[in-house]
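Report of the visiting student (M.T.), summer placement. My assignment was to run the structure pipeline on a short list of targets and document each run. The first record concerns Pyridoxamine 5'-phosphate oxidase family protein.
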Amino acid sequence: MGTEPSGQYVSEFSEPDGSAVPWGDVERVLRESEMFWLSTVRRDGRPHVAPLPAMWLDGKLHFCTGAHEQKARNIESNPRCVLTTGTNSYRSGLDVVVEGTVAQVNDETTLTRLAQLWRDKLDWSFEVVDGQFRDPGVDDHRAPVFAVTPAKVLAFSKAPYSQTRFTFP
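After the run finished, the structure tokens were exported:
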């Protein structure tokens, strides 16, 4: 996504001495975080939340999961999801919530770049095979890779507490 999102400081949910979070700070958290929480919805409407690593690349968050796993089945019926990351601290840090739509990534060039990110960041090696990741350490375990295109991103800074809402063109 070549364009930077527009940000809006949400004073209603911020302390008087709070301020807007710059997009660069949000992107840094998305780029550097190792773990995220993925929230999807089951076919019967019940929520499903699972921790997983995700990679920020080209303005999207990417994750992989086995095709048989609950999150993959949920995405089949409803491509909308939320990914969150941040800190478990009450008085410091930056928490980020990404709301968006999921699409499977099949492009070998993008998958190769993502596999390199997983290797560099987490020391987790994947091979790219037939438009999916393959974990060479597990008997031909393949995992589709998904990209979340953000529709809205919320950034919550702490001490002072503030909320900034980013929307995308």
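The two ends are 9 Å apart (CA to CA). Residues 10 and 163 are 5 Å apart (CA to CA). I thank the supervising group for their guidance throughout the placement.
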